[in-house]
Amino acid sequence: MSTLADKGFKLSKNVFFKYILGKATGLMGKPVKIGILLTSAYEKLTTAKSNESGFEQIKGIMMRFMRLVKAYMNGTYRDINTKSLLLGVAVLLYVVTPLDIIPDFIPILGFADDLSLMAWFITAFQEELQKFQVWEEGSVAIGHS
């Protein structure tokens, strides 16, 4: 049986996700559109309900990634691999896109592909996310949030 992250890895190789990745690349030079994406992703993540184990943990880590994108866009944090940043933004785009592999209006299953893609991203880019967490905690400790 494959793990949630394994299912997400398979989704990351899907033609639709590759299309979304292209869209993410185009967004990187558009701070206003990134802001709208972050707001949409935040709203979807905070209203989503799931019985999946670890959902709250995945949600918390994705919220951290959204803060990373915001810090990157405002220039306060740049210590991230560009590919990691683009893949993460593509995952957020996938999450907020109403038409994905399994449409979100299908109860439980509709959010399962989003969850698996987020789990894959978190697993694959854990080091980048941890590096940001250390930076973020240091910034808060010295009052530069």
What does this structure look like?
- With 145 residues, the chain is mainly alpha-helical.
- The chain has one domain (10-139).
- Helices cover 72% and strands 0% of the residues.
- The protein contains 7 helices and no strands.
- It has helices at 4-12, 15-27, 31-47, 55-73, 82-96, 109-124, 126-141.
- The longest helix is centred in the middle third of the chain and has 19 residues, at 55-73.
- The protein starts with a helix and ends with a helix.
- Residues 104-108 have low confidence and may be disordered.
- Residues 86-120 form the DUF1232 domain.
- It is a multi-pass membrane protein.
- This is DUF1232 domain-containing protein.
- It is found in: Endomembrane system.
- The chain crosses the membrane at residues 80-99.
Give the SSE map.
Layout (H helix, E strand, L loop, with lengths): L3 H9 L2 H13 L3 H17 L7 H19 L8 H15 L12 H16 L1 H16 L4
Helix pairs in contact: 1-6, 2-5, 3-4, 3-5, 4-6, 5-6
Question: What does this entry show, briefly?
Answer:
It contains seven helices and no strands.
What Rg do the Cα atoms give? 15 Å
Beta-strand percentage? under 5%
Number of strands: 0
What is the molecular shape? globular
Q: What is the terminal-to-terminal distance?
A: 42 Å
Instruction: Summarize model confidence as the mean pLDDT.
Output: 81
- Stretches where pLDDT is under 50 for at least 5 consecutive residues are 104-108
> What profile does the largest beta sheet have?
none
Structurally, the number of domains stands at: 1
List the total number of helices. 7
List the helices and strands in order. Answer: HHHHHHH
Helix content: over 70%
- Based on helices, strands and strand pairing, what is the structural class? mainly alpha
Main location: membrane
Membrane topology: Multi-pass membrane protein
Subcellular location: Endomembrane system
InterPro entries: DUF1232
